[in-house]
Specification:
With about 500 residues, the chain is of the alpha+beta class. The protein is built from 16 helices and 20 strands. The strands form 5 sheets. It has an 8-stranded antiparallel β-sheet with strand order 13-12-9-10-11-14-19-18, sandwiched between helices. Strands 3-2-1-4-5 form a 5-stranded parallel β-sheet. Bound molecules: ligand MV4.
């Protein structure tokens, strides 16, 4: 593989190209008109404009990207995350054009894109799943029968949904009919597929996902877990590896289940198997994400592996160069997603210009970003500015380093989730490790954050006043009589 096209933008495009360059592979960037001066465009060996800013006219134009790749003699296409990354049609068109798709085969993407197909495949591999219906339920009467078996509360989920889209909780039988009808009609309009199914509702679960790697020679390993329970409306905010609650025994059980999920769809490359885990540490397979995930750096830090390098090696047909027994967890890593959003105003996107932008530097700090000082954060894409990742010998040290790194990070011109990240790191519930997906709802309020911010502003004002008073003494103006300046 001599030349790779990265079909993405921002931090992930840059991150993929850095590894490619290190491996001696040439890079091609694609970009929209608004990203003309973006770092990923400047970094690449070659760059081609796709079209206007809206993704439907640029980053989602799969056929145009493939045509470009052919004309530039590209050997492989890396899709990053989002955009075309989990589009089976794209992956299959790439391969049909004689180019390597750096990711799984279309069949696996398609299977795991359907929650029902995923559960069906997993069933044969002895993977724990939440009790519920085996197939789609269309009929309210069938739903009532199922509900009687599994009990309330329950969840209706869209088969084509995922990441929290197309889900609803049903507390009691009287709500079931209307919820079913709504879920089906929503799924039909949102995904063009009205299939829904029912599961028992697991209350206040933790969200723990396992990273897997599968090569084309039958080797599949797990690179341990990421704890992603600190979420806001299904948007992850803080992720960490390893989880504070897994015992070595449960970790092994879950990891081996994740490997079986990968085998059930003949997986290739880097993938993530999501589990729900309840307060008794029972775990249930939820879904598999067939892409490199935003939060992959925490796994890289605790395993010492470069996941993009692994993806490229696997795509080139190489065997994994290590086995499960070679893999060990080393230390603890934390990631904060730095969004251009205002945590004091309902996390509304705060787009605008990065008037000042200075990243924290030092040991045990990694920043993956795709912006520079002076750039605008466009309204057209995800408002994530950067990922701030810290490392420590243990969880406590990683959290402490995160707080220090947040304090060193200077961003002016837009509001960000940096103060929110610090707030999370300082909560007793977070520090103890004893939290679940209800964390943000339970502990966060803009009023509490405002108190923090005001306290800091007061301290800053006091420091400024103190400095001023100290200097005032030294800078007392000299008497006019001592001056050499003469009035004329
Ligand atoms: C659930 C659940 C409780 N019970 N399924 C949300 C994202 C999607 N991947 C699945 N999700 C959930 N499925 C059952 N049977 C609770 C959630 C859920 C959740 C899961 C992970 C992370 C955050 C969450 C927030 C609310 C609900």
């Amino acid at each position: 593989m001599k030349k790779i096209l990265v079909a993405n933008r921002g931090e992930i495009a840059l991150r993929v190209m850095r590894t490619a360059r290190r491996m001696g592979i040439k890079t091609v960037a694609v970009y929209s008109e608004i990203d003309r001066d973006a770092p990923h465009v400047k970094f690449a060996d070659e760059a081609v404009c796709l079209g206007p800013a809206p993704s439907a006219q640029s980053y989602l134009l799969g056929d145009k990207i493939i045509e470009l790749a052919k004309s530039l003699n590209v050997d492989g296409i890396h899709p990053g995350y989002g955009f075309l990354s989990e589009n089976a049609g794209f992956s299959s068109a790439v391969e049909a054009a004689g180019i390597t798709f750096i990711g799984p085969k279309p069949k696996a993407i398609e299977m795991m894109g359907s929650k029902l197909a995923a559960k069906e495949a997993a069933k044969a591999y002895n993977i724990p799943m939440v009790p519920g219906t085996d197939g789609a339920i269309a009929d309210v009467n069938a739903a009532i029968q199922t509900a009687k078996l599994i009990g309330f509360p329950l969840m209706i989920k869209a088969s084509a949904g995922g990441g929290g889209k197309g889900m609803r909780i049903v507390e009691k039988e009287s709500e079931l009919k209307e919820s079913m009808e709504r879920a089906i009609s929503e799924a039909t309009s949102a995904f063009g597929d009205g299939s829904v199914f029912i599961e028992k509702y697991v209350s206040r679960p933790r969200h723990i996902e396992f990273q897997v790697l599968a090569d084309g020679h039958g080797n599949v390993v797990y690179l341990f877990e990421r704890e992603c329970s600190v979420q806001r409306r299904h948007q992850k905010v803080v992720e960490e590896a390893p989880s504070a609650v897994l015992t070595p025994e449960i970790r092994k059980e879950m990891g081996e289940a994740a490997v079986r999920v990968a085998k059930s769809c003949d997986y290739l490359g880097a993938g993530t198997v999501e589990f729900l885990i309840d307060d008794k540490l029972n775990f249930y397979f939820l879904e598999m994400n067939t892409r490199l995930q935003v939060e992959h750096p925490v796994t890289e830090w605790i395993t010492g592996l470069d996941l993009v390098e692994q993806q490229i090696r696997i795509a080139r047909g190489e065997q994994l160069s290590f086995s499960q027994d070679d893999l060990k967890i080393n230390g603890h890593a934390l990631e904060l997603r730095v969004y251009a959003e205002n945590p004091l105003n309902n996390f509304l996107p705060s787009v605008g210009k990065l008037e000042r932008y200075r990243i924290p530097v030092g040991d045990n700090i990694r920043v993956d970003d795709g912006y520079e000082e002076g750039m605008d954060i466009p309204i057209y894409y995800d408002p994530m500015i950067a990922k701030l990742i810290t490392y420590g010998k243990d969880r406590e040290a990683a959290i402490q380093r995160m707080i220090e790194a947040i304090e060193m990070y200077e961003i002016e011109g837009v509001s960000t989730t940096l103060p929110f990240g610090k707030f999370v790191c300082e909560q007793e519930a977070f520090r103890s490790g004893n939290f679940d997906t209800g964390f943000v709802q339970q502990y966060y309020s803009p009023e509490l954050l405002l108190k923090d911010v005001e306290k800091e502003m007061q301290i800053a004002a006091m420091v400024a006043l103190n400095t001023h008073l100290k200097h005032k003494k030294k800078l007392r103006p000299i008497k006019v009589a001592d001056s050499n300046w003469k009035d004329r």
